[in-house]
Write a structure and sequence with these properties.
- With 153 residues, the chain is α/β, with parallel strands linked by helices.
- 32% of the residues lie in helices and 39% in strands.
- Strands 1, 2, 3, 4, 5, 6 and 7 form a 7-stranded mixed sheet that branches.
- Strand 1 and strand 2 form a beta hairpin.
- Helix 2 runs parallel beside helix 3.
- The radius of gyration is 16 Å and the shape is globular.
């Protein structure tokens, strides 16, 4: 299976994009990295994200605008990876841009908010998109046991 994985970290300076091929051998999933690149956010989008990070408070209009603009930026990053590598993915996985983690007094994660509407990616690439994976990770206690991945060089 060919997969493009995309994430933007806490520096919110851009999007890391990995094109990988997954194969399963017995109980082990092997991953071969085909390519990796980082795509910078535009100065305007970077500043909009910076101006929206905690401890600042923002309204729902800002959330909606960010969700769309980040989704479109992720779509462009996926399209660039596909074109630059002649890579035809079966799936695109988008973590999105973390805007907020809700951590309680016991330091347990209770919720998380990643923006970057995946419909833009799916519509503009024609590829199915798996998203909101960090929220599932939090719901599962912050990790998912039983995953065995071997990285192949």
């Amino acid at each position: 299976m060919k997969v493009i994985g995309m994430i933007s970290g806490t520096s919110y300076d851009g999007i890391d994009v990995a094109c990988c091929e997954f194969t399963q051998v017995d109980e082990v999933i092997e991953v071969r990295q085909v390519s990796f690149s980082s795509v910078e956010y535009s100065d305007e989008l970077h500043q909009l994200i910076a101006d929206s990070m905690p401890p600042r408070t923002i309204d729902m209009e800002r959330v909606c605008v960010l969700d769309t603009l980040i989704g479109q930026a992720f779509s462009r990053a996926a399209q660039k990876a596909i074109a630059d590598n002649s890579f035809a993915p079966d799936l695109i996985v988008s973590h999105g841009q973390t805007l907020f983690h809700w951590i309680d007094a016991n330091h347990d994660a209770k919720g998380t908010l990643q923006l970057g509407e995946p419909s833009w990616i799916a519509e503009e690439t024609g590829v199915q998109v798996l998203s909101n994976i960090r929220a599932r990770d939090v719901a599962a206690g912050g990790h998912h046991p039983g995953c065995h991945i071997a990285f192949v060089h």
